[in-house]
Amino acid sequence: MDYKIIRKENTKESVWAGGISKELYIFPDDSNLNSPFSFRVSTATINPGVYNFTTFDSYKRLLILLKGSVKLEIDNNEYFLKPMSHTFFSGDSLTTSKAEEISEDFNLIFKKDVELLTFHITDNNISGEILSNKAINIFYNLENTKHININNNEYLLEPEDTVIICGNSFKIEGHGKGILLSLHIK
């Protein structure tokens, strides 16, 4: 796979105790949450109330709050998240969320042998040259339509679209926030 664009209408939705999860991408392609996977990116709503997160033994997690406000209790430590703030934690951790309002987050769950080379919350143009050409790069578009050029092919990314790019031959142009992850499978 050179690259893949996942449109928001093609994400896989599932219900979790606190709301709806939308799977943006899981690697390898034929895996799922109940089988071994290397990493998974998703968004999820968090309804008002208190909810326990699913544990993922032998994985790490990155959670970025997109909307609302949430208090996370991770192994008896409290973290208060506002939009565009984030936290890393072990998938083994006992994690509880408490929200007073409907909130939304962006999640990365990745095996301990997957290296997160970088992640950026950005509203600028992005060029793949700043990233490893051996990485799997993921861009989740939060705001505004953006132009993306991959291997001399041009596409439009709408809000909540995701692009997966193997290597660094891409350029994303347009204003508005987005999340960029760069992962290396060891």
Fraction of residues in H or I helices: under 10%
Largest sheet: 6 strands, antiparallel
* Sequence of secondary-structure elements: EEEEEEEEEEEEEEEEEEE
From the alpha carbons, calculate the radius of gyration and give it in angstroms. 16 Å
Distance between the termini: 18 Å
What is the mean pLDDT?
92
Number of strands: 19
Strand proportion: over 45%
Provide structural commentary.
By secondary structure, the chain is mainly β. It has a six-stranded antiparallel β-sheet with strand order 2-3-4-11-6-9, with no helix packed on it. It has a five-stranded antiparallel β-sheet with strand order 1-17-14-19-12, with no helix packed on it. Strands 5-10-7-8 form a four-stranded antiparallel β-sheet, with no helix packed on it. Helix content is 0%, strand content 60%. It has strands spanning 3-6, 12-16, 19-27, 39-46, 49-52, 59-67, 70-74, 77-81, 86-90, 95-99, 103-111, 114-122, 126-127, 136-141, 146-150, 153-157, 162-166, 170-173, 178-185. The chain starts with a strand and ends with a strand. The chain is globular, with a radius of gyration of 16 Å. The protein contains no helices and 19 strands.
Task: Please give a quick description of this structure.
This protein is mainly beta and 186 residues long. It has no helices and 19 strands.
